[in-house]
């Protein structure tokens, strides 16, 4: 039986009006501009672009403002927006080896061609709150030094020259690139689909899973072979033009994890690898992603499947925070009719329980 | 590709110009275009916003995978003399896509190619390189110079 419940419209309208008021906050405080969010909360923008799976700084900043700083709500808004635009096609794969590096560190080699470049990082800060930032700040201009124009090859490319690390899997002729925004995810999923899923996956979820592998739940002995952040050029092959069109550049973070060995009777042992790539400066995200990518290769590498991070269906089905928040948060929407039926069932069970327990007492009294 | 003039084929010149223009603010392109006498043209494709799926490679150098989408604006115009120009650029700035399309058509026109290169693309290329050099110099200052401490007589 359906029970029509009406009367919420005015309450909803007024709730949204109150939300807008609370979002604005004290009107004596200047309102945030999108440029302020984009420029001064840049890492929040990067996270919303990564997990919203849409590179557009201005839209991500708008989403953060609209969501009152709730980043998962902002990611939800960005995902919903992307569904309103047509897709022109897919870009040429970006070349991270040609990145204009702003930061590039390796924990495996001290001396790497191109050097260790710290860039803008929280590393080596003391994590003490800075009271001066509570006032208007006017930091010194960055130091300058003569830039080397030497190439900055990926550390994995260097290891690969000596065959010390497994090569990356190459394109299988004619195999399409999996796209989970077009086709529902099935299992087992190829590495392309796994990486797409992880790239848009929740940073906190991936961080916890990556951490679990370090603590022994699917241990795979990682080293951060290299983390790099900077700009790469994006090109798009447009049919009507007939060549790859430069679209501009985007900021990316890439992490190459180097892990312990595999080998066989016919192949000498070599390092294995896990890969992380994300929009913007997203270092924790790409490191976690690379740990989980490697853990998810357990079956391929003949390792025992014993830990949550190695369970492809578990990881890939629960990594998306928009799906997760949708299902968790739907619990707060009206379930009055469902609940009425449960309540009816519970009352019936309790009545039966009471009757069953009353009978022996009556019998005893009769005897 | 570095947006330079080393490429001599028409396609390389067009790609080089598109790369420079894609990095310039629309207002800067418009300002420089305003100094040039422009031939008559018509719009073939009104500016339109959409998405491209940005691809990466597994391990950086392996098979491609879909990383996530990016917003793109595109437009196309035709000069009355027949040249068709295309503009594609990251973001949602339709006016910028239109300006790039116009430049792309003019580069293909023998009457206008050199003026576009000299008055529009070359100065914007210089600005792009200056900005990149600045960023590279800032990063270079954070490069670690390791030195080894020698203890005892080694």
From TrEMBL, chain A:
Source organism of the structure: Bradyrhizobium denitrificans
High-level lineage: Bacteria, Pseudomonadati, Pseudomonadota, Alphaproteobacteria, Hyphomicrobiales
Protein name: Carbon-phosphorus lyase complex subunit PhnI
A molecular function (GO) term: lyase activity
Keywords: Lyase
Stored Pfam families: PhnI (PF05861)
């Amino acid at each position: 039986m359906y029970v029509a419940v009406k009367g919420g419209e005015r309450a909803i309208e007024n709730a949204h009006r109150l939300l807008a008021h609370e979002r604005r906050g004290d009107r004596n405080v200047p309102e945030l501009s999108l440029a302020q969010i984009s420029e001064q909360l840049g890492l929040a923008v990067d996270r919303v672009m990564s997990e919203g799976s849409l590179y557009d700084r201005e839209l991500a900043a708008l989403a953060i403002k609209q969501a009152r700083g709730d980043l998962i709500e902002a990611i939800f808004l960005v995902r919903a927006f992307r569904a309103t635009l047509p897709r022109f096609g897919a870009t040429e794969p970006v070349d991270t080896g040609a990145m204009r590096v702003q930061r590039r560190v390796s924990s495996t080699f001290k001396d790497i061609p191109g050097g260790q470049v710290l860039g803008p990082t929280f590393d080596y800060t003391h994590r003490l709150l800075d009271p001066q930032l509570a006032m208007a700040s006017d930091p010194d201009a960055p130091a300058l030094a003569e830039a080397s124009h030497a190439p900055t090859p990926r550390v994995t490319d260097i290891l690969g020259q000596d065959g010390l690390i497994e090569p990356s899997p190459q394109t299988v002729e004619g195999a399409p690139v999996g796209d989970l925004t077009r086709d529902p995810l099935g299992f087992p999923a190829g590495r392309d689909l796994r990486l797409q899923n992880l790239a848009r996956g929740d940073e906190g979820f991936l961080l916890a899973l990556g951490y679990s592998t370090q603590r022994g739940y699917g241990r795979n002995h990682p080293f951060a072979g290299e983390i790099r952040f900077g700009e790469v050029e994006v090109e798009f092959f447009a049919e009507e033009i007939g060549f790859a069109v430069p679209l501009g550049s985007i900021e990316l973070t890439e992490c190459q994890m180097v892990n312990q060995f595999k080998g066989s009777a016919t192949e000498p042992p070599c390092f294995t690898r896990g890969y992380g790539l994300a929009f913007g400066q997203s270092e924790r995200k790409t490191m976690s992603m690379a740990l989980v990518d490697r853990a998810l290769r357990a079956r391929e590498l003949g390792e025992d499947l014993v830990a949550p991070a190695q369970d492809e269906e578990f990881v890939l089905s629960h990594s998306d925070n928009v799906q997760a928040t949708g299902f968790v948060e739907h619990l707060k929407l009206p379930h009055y009719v469902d609940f009425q039926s449960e309540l009816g069932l519970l009352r019936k069970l309790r009545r039966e329980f009471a009757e069953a327990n009353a009978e022996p007492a009556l019998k005893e009294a009769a005897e | 590709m570095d947006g330079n003039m080393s490429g001599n084929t028409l396609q390389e010149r067009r790609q080089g110009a598109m790369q420079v223009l894609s990095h310039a603010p629309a207002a800067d392109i418009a300002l420089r275009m305003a100094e040039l006498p422009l031939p008559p043209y018509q719009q073939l494709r009104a500016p339109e916003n959409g998405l491209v799926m940005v691809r990466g490679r597994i391990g950086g150098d392996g098979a491609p995978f879909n990383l996530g989408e990016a917003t793109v604006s595109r437009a196309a115009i035709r000069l009355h003399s027949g040249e068709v120009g295309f503009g594609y650029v990251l973001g949602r700035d339709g006016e910028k896509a239109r300006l790039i399309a116009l430049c792309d058509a003019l580069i293909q026109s023998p009457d206008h190619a050199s003026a576009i290169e000299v008055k529009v693309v070359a100065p914007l290329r210089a600005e792009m390189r200056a900005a990149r050099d600045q960023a590279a110099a800032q990063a270079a200052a954070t490069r670690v110079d390791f030195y080894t401490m020698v203890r005892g007589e080694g």
